Structure formats: structure tokens, C-alpha cells
Amino acid sequence: MIETDIEFALISLCDGRISPLVAKPGTETPYICYRKKLESSIDVLDGPIGTAYCFQVNIFADDMKQAETIKNQAYENLKSLQPYNIKGMQRYDKDKALFCATLEFSL
Question: Would the pTM count as exceeding 0.85?
């Protein structure tokens, strides 16, 4: 399962505070949440030949510099999975009062 590969690649970051979708309330910062954003069939004339995935990895931290640093480390750790269409984003989550650096990629 591809999610297991992603979690294994990220487990060394944030002291292992990694969760699919959302973190439990009260999780110590920084932490990582990841999700499968899209799963689509790769079709050719003869039918489907595989599946493509789009994943999003969100790093929540008390400041943007820390979130960005961990995002860059996450990218390095994920390189073995051969991600492509890589995008990075930043935002401030008002509800959590935390900075968030996002890494989005396809596999």
C-alpha cells in the first residue's frame, strides 16, 4: 500500500508525529498529516494499465521557517518513491493557530 511507503519515508521527521488526514487534538508541534488527494486510472486503448496518485503532505509548526525546513526534509525522504509534478505551498491555519508548509506530488 502506497500510504505505508509514504509514512515509512516520513517517520524519522517530527519525532514520528505523523497522521493520515488529521492529527489527534493536542498533538505536539511540529507534526505531519498526509492524505491521498486523488487516485486515477491510467488508461490506454487496450484498457487500464495502472493507477496514478496525488498526495498532499502538510507540515504544521509554530513558525514558517520550521515548517519549510521539515517540508524540504520530507521531499528528500520521499525521493526514493520517485515523485513528480511536485508543488509547494505555504499558509497559516487560523483554526489551529499554526503555520503550514505543504508538499503536493504525484506517484
Answer: yes
